[in-house]
């Protein structure tokens, strides 16, 4: 039999084999398989890739963050305490210290965090801030 669930815990006790239900696919009970139903004209099975180069990745990431800091109003960073927001905050903070925005808005980067009191996310975000 075939079962569907949005979370693994609904199936983990009763199923032996699991398959991901990929985006843009439907399940055909006649054929007993998933098949793609949404085929946009830009979609290709061949996803372009390039060799891993940490320096290229770092440069692209920093350019993406700095591009979003080009503003004429004060801005801040939403911190979760995780790796992504911590890296964004680090790049933004370094850029602010070196830019004209520091003269206008101050060199201190404003950070914000949303969470429940006592949550590990808040603790991690405080450490990053």
Automatic annotation (TrEMBL):
The superkingdom listed in its UniProt entry is Eukaryota
Report the enzyme's class at the first EC level.
Answer: ligase
Mention one GO molecular function: asparagine synthase (glutamine-hydrolyzing) activity
Domain (Asparagine synthetase) spans 57-129
Listed InterPro entries: Asn_synthase (IPR001962), Asn_Synthetase (IPR050795), Rossmann-like_a/b/a_fold (IPR014729)
What keywords were assigned to this record?
A: ATP-binding, Ligase, Nucleotide-binding
EC no. given is 6.3.5.4
Name-wise, this protein is Putative asparagine synthetase [glutamine-hydrolyzing] 3 isoform X1
The record, for SUPFAM superfamilies, names: Adenine nucleotide alpha hydrolases-like
Q: Where is the signal peptide?
A: none
Q: Name one Pfam family in it.
A: Asn_synthase
Q: Does the keyword Zinc apply?
A: no
- Any one cellular-component term (Gene Ontology): cytosol
Q: Could you tell me the Gene Ontology terms of the biological process aspect for this record?
A: asparagine biosynthetic process
Keyword Ligase recorded: yes
Organism of this sequence? Davidia involucrata (Dove tree)
